[in-house]
Specification:
Length: 148
């Protein structure tokens, strides 16, 4: 009888240990997003345009240092990179067109998520596509504003 209880207890402890190990693995693998992170949903469309639902002219406005989750649905245009990227997303300072570190993304077909931190410098920025996606590629841009 004692042996049976000891086995049950050992089995229960083993299940708890395995559960904790799995939970730890998941916490390491899942991008950590602060509970206050804002989700921005964007489509990089086949017509070589960025689109945000409900906006005629897409524009993103964030606060300095704000954490965001950029959820992008990319649809294949007429052409794409050899690595399978169908669109790009590069954040440039509007005043001198210099790139913002960490904001140079490539999108493959489908939906992807990127955990990003808004630039620390308030001002006007522009998002441009960095993959020659079609003849309309040059028109694939949008305004990005960082508020203090």
């Amino acid at each position: 009888m004692m042996a049976k209880l000891a086995m049950k207890k050992a089995f229960r402890i083993d299940r708890i240990v395995v559960g904790i190990a799995i939970l730890g693995f998941l916490l390491v693998r899942v991008p950590r997003v602060n509970g206050q992170a804002r989700v921005i949903e964007l489509t990089a469309d086949r017509d070589s345009r960025y689109k945000i639902a409900g906006m005629r002219s897409p524009e993103i406005t964030v606060k300095t240092g704000e954490q965001i989750l950029l959820r992008v649905t990319a649809r294949r245009g007429k052409s794409w990179n050899r690595d399978g990227s169908v669109h790009g997303f590069s954040l440039l300072r509007a005043r001198d067109r210099t790139k913002v570190d960490g904001w140079d993304l490539l999108f493959k077909p489908g939906t992807q998520e990127f955990v990003m931190t808004a630039p620390a410098e308030p001002g006007e920025y522009v998002v441009v596509c960095t993959v020659i996606c079609s003849e309309e590629h040059e028109g694939m841009h949008m305004k990005f504003t960082v508020l203090p």
